[in-house]
Amino acid sequence: METVLEQNTRAFVDRRGSVEGGHGGPERRQFRATPNVERPEIAELGNAIDQYKLEHRRRFITFEELHSVLTRLGYHK
User: Which of 8, 17, 49, 71 has the highest CB neighbour count under 10 A?
Assistant: First the structure.
C-alpha cells in the first residue's frame, strides 16, 4: 500500500484525449465544450480554467478557485 507521500510524488499523467481515459474518447471539459467559440473572452476563460486544472491536478474546481482564475485574467468587481 502506498503512503500519502508516495501518492503525491507520483508523476502526473494527463490522460485527456487518450483512449486510456476509460471511455474511449477525449475527456470532456467542464467549462469549454467546443473548440470553435465565437467570443474570444469565452475561449480565454475556458483555456485558463483548463490550464489551472492541469497545473493543480484537479478534475473540478471550486468557486474560490474559479475566482482565482478570473482574478489572474484581470477581471474584478
Answer: 49
